[in-house]
Every structure is written in C-alpha cells, then in structure tokens.
C-alpha cells in the first residue's frame, strides 16, 4: 500500500471520504464527505474565510452554480475550455492526451494536438488499458451542459469555476465598495468539470469545491500597503528561470519583489497569503512550492501566474492554488459581450488640467432644427466619443428619441479643461483554491505510522497529526468504564466544552486503549479521561495526541484549559496542570 492508499483507506474507514454512489457501483470523479470529512472541510473553509473575508475584507457572495450561455461565451469557456482527448481504437477508453506524454516533456499541457499526436507516435505510446493503438487527439469541452426550463429550454452550463459569478456582478460590487480600488469579492462553492479520465481519486473530481477571490486593482497601482507583514517570510519559489535549472529557490518575499521574480508587490502579497494559509491548515513547509507559469503556458493576457504546488507521495507535485494577475481581460470580455461598460470612476487626489477637444455645436443652426430639444441634443453630442463624432451624420439618442445631426453644424475647439477623475477598467488578481485537493494533502501530510511501546511491547500506531484548528474533533471525552457514575460527569464535561465552542466527541464504547487509538487515527489533539479519581478529587486526565503525554487537571475551568491548548495559547506547563 502506498501512502495514498493508506490515507484513502483510513479516510473511508473513519468517515472522512466515501466513494459516491457506492451502493450502485460508484462513478469516477465523485466523492462524498462523511461526518469527519465534512467537518474537516468546513474547518479549512472557515480559516480561508477568516483570512480573505474577515481580514482582507473581500466580502463573500453566492451566485448560481448553473450559468447561462452568454456568460461562458464571454469568458471563453464555450469556445476554449477543453482538454485534448485521445481514444483507444481498440477498447474505446478515453485518455487525456497531454497526460500520456507528461513523463516525456515537462509542460505537456502547453502542446498543440499535432505535437501531442507526434509525441505519442514517436514514443510508441499505446492505450494504457489494453495496449491498443490510440486515435488522434481532439478537443473535448469540459463543461457539463444542461437546459434551463422545460422542453428544449435555454442552453445552460454547470459553472466550471466560481469566478464568473463575481465578474458578472462587477457593477454591483463596485457600487457596494463605493468604487474604491482595490476591492474584492470571494466565493466558496461547487464547480463542475467533465474531466476526461479522473483516475486520481479525490485529486481530480468532476464536482469539486473552489474558494476564489477576484480582487480588482488599479492597473497602475500594484503596491500593497500590508506587504510588511510578509516581507521577511521565506518562500520556496520555482520561477520560470529556476525551472530551467531544475532547482527550487528559497527567498524572502522582499527579495522576490526586488529581483522582479514575482511581477509586483500586490501579487507577491497574495502568494505569501496563500503560503500562510496552506501552512496554517497543516501543509508541510518543505513540501510546498510556488511554480511560475512558463511563457508558453501562461494565458496570453496574463501578467504573471503562480501555482501553489504540494508534494504528494503518489502524484508528485500537484497544483492546489492558482494565483494570477489576469489584467483587464475578464471585465473587457464581459463588457464587449454584454455591451455594458465595466469601469470604475477614479477620483484624482487633485483635479488635473488637461487639453481636450471640445464639441461646439452651432446653436444658431441647432435651434431651428431641433427646437425645444436643441439644448439636450447639444449636451448629448458632448458625451460622444471621437469615433462616434467622426461621421457625416451623427446619431444621438435623447430620452429614447433618435436624432441625426449633420456634421457641418458642429465645430471643435481645443480647450484646457479641469477633470476631477477618470474611468478605469481595473485589473484582476485572482487566487483560485481547490479545497478538495488541499483537504487530501492535509490528511496525507498529517498521516504518520510509528512504533510505540504498549504494555512492554512495541505496537504500531497510526496518527493524523492535524493542526488543532482543523481537526474535526478537538477533544474526546472518554469515561474509563461504561458506568453511570463515570458517564454522568463525563457528559457534563462534554457539555461544558461544547458551550465553550469546542468540537467534542463523547465516546464510551470499548476499551480505553482502543478509544485512544481511534482518536489518534482521526487526529483528535486532546482526550479527557474520567475515572474513579475524578469522583474523589474532581480531576481528569488530559492526553496529548502527539506526545501521548498524560496530565491531571481539575474539572473546574477545564473548558478554558482545553480551549487554550487547542488554540495554542497554553501548553501543559502553563496550563497549570500536573504531570
Ligand atoms: N477536477 C478537479 N478536481 C479537484 N480540484 C480541481 C479540479 N480542477 C481544478 N481544481 C482546483 O481548482 C484550482 C483552480 O482551478 P484551475 O482552473 O486553475 O485548475 P487547472 O489549472 O485547470 O487544474 P489542472 O491543471 O490540475 O486541471 C486548482 O488549483 C485545483 O486546486
């Protein structure tokens, strides 16, 4: 069994992850979260919310998981959200063509279908299932289609990312934030991709959870007021240049900015924030790196893109977060398709004097032509762009009425005018997290097998060394025996701890040793045992999952002691408990 199998076996047995539709034989690309898995997921999402929503102030919104066609035409998903598919001519199995050659070239997903076909031929790659000959690669769109409404309905798609819900609400968001850049919105929710061959279990799902932030910034202001928070943090950077050499470089955030390895401070801040989040949920620092997209891999409109990658036992480095400066691409695309300007009005600190062409309608001629509307038509002319004015007959619409103005009754002058602000299409910085992959990695990095002494013998122990903050059970309450006199106080203690906001599991089944093992396996950081001494001196035993150290502590105030232990505010010594 490799580590992946061990983790998945434990995850299934203990109620973290289950294959969906198991009763009916299952379906690839879908996983259910059991009781502990769901809680673990919520804990991870909660920390994400704390960082992005509460601290950064990027408010969370919730938009439909089904989208209408216009949205995905504008975003480019209808036209281009596809992976190269290759089918076996013999058994009919489908494969991602780029995955078939990813051992041969470094960045297989940047190759064209022709290049993929050539590599498959040159390297005699056959069907991984039956060895048969493979057909030519072709593009397969990954969006699930659906129809909205009865009958043939209206074409709809299950969203392949949460991001579009934020872009299409740009105007409302901008008003909510009173047009003060930078501002951002976040969304945590399901996304759907009809992945070609999801053979990597929970790593590649057809329905998965994303946590995304769309941060709208001024295109020319990409410094960050809080960069000082992270300047001295060391990152494992695998820049485009470092990838040529094949070495991951360690450097501080400040150095990466000064050496222009990361395009700008704002992006660097968000890479550092991702680093902070991933380590806080329990990703091992030495198994985490940030890989920069190479030139031919990066979207043509992007300024800079980095993927947070985590080292896993079976799959090697996997992408869990993408962090990109996407420029004004998304807003421009939606503005074009919807015919609506998506801009913010930025006020200058001081009004600026600028030279400008100004339209001068000849009112003596406008009057007879447009009568009582002459003034409003003249005002409407002043709002037109130079393209719209550069016509023989100029069209304007006033209060729903169309007017045609002959160009010879208009003249232009150059004037110095005072302007107090300008219209700007913001740039978008997007951190895009895959929660399921992160959850799996927290389990794999927390997983440990060790030999421990038990009753004079060595015994194997499996322990999930979760960070206390993400552990789905923070404290287990274990009466030594299933006797009323022990169970009653145990239940009372459990209630006290729940009232303190802790995640508590009360467990009185089977021998105490087995219950410790079970809690080690699900990663419970602390266990409290209630025994006959409890009845004598009102004290309990607290056991630490990692060290297996046991201490006695008074029942009075136990909720505060455990709370502080869980949230790292006290250790056993400062908790005032005795060995
Ligand atoms: N099929 C999937 N199953 C689980 N998580 C996914 C899946 N596709 C994407 N994600 C997560 O969403 C994040 C952002 O999505 P993005 O579109 O950048 O992924 P991607 O580059 O298409 O991923 P990949 O190259 O692995 O298919 C990824 O970093 C990943 O964590």
TrEMBL record:
Instruction: Quote the InterPro entries the UniProt record gives.
Output: aa-tRNA-synt_IIb, aa-tRNA-synth_II, aa-tRNA-synth_II/BPL/LPL, Anticodon-bd, Anticodon-bd_dom_sf, Gly-tRNA_synthase/POLG2, Gly_tRNA_ligase_arc, GlyRS-like_core
Q: Which UniProt keywords apply?
A: Aminoacyl-tRNA synthetase, ATP-binding, Cytoplasm, Ligase, Nucleotide-binding, Protein biosynthesis
Kindly list the biological process annotations in GO that this record carries: glycyl-tRNA aminoacylation; small molecule metabolic process
GO molecular function ontology, one term from the record:
ATP binding
Positions contributing to ATP binding: 193-195, 203-208, 319-320, 434-437
The entry's family comment says: Belongs to the class-II aminoacyl-tRNA synthetase family.
Q: What does this protein do?
A: Catalyzes the attachment of glycine to tRNA(Gly).
Name under which the protein is recorded = Glycine--tRNA ligase
Gene responsible for this protein: glyS
